[in-house]
Amino acid sequence: MGWRCYRLPGTEGSRITVRVRADIRIARWKEVMMERFDNGVPANSISDAQWLKSSISSAVGNCVEVAALPQGDVAVRNSRYPDGPALIYTRDELKAFVAGAKSGEFDHVTA
């Protein structure tokens, strides 16, 4: 068992020190912590993403798709451009948007 320093993506100059053990929980923690996604990341670069779309979406692919990310955020992409950019939101941000959509706040955009 020893100590190692890791630099997390997007944290220039910052490091995190962890005690490294041959333990599956530590390995899984490192995997989750090291895989961080920023807005605009190519959607196809999000490994193991399970993209979901609404069952009432059109069959020609005009859909918004979402995927849960390991650290708890949610990725959103346009199904017409599956390799295009994905926008990353927290669950609270997405909940607020869905609540607004359900209450009709964005109806004027699609009218």
From TrEMBL:
<protein>
    <recommendedName>
        <fullName>DUF397 domain-containing protein</fullName>
    </recommendedName>
</protein>
<dbReference type="InterPro" id="IPR007278">
    <property type="entry name" value="DUF397"/>
</dbReference>
<dbReference type="Pfam" id="PF04149">
    <property type="entry name" value="DUF397"/>
</dbReference>
<feature type="domain" description="DUF397">
    <location>
        <begin position="49"/>
        <end position="102"/>
    </location>
</feature>
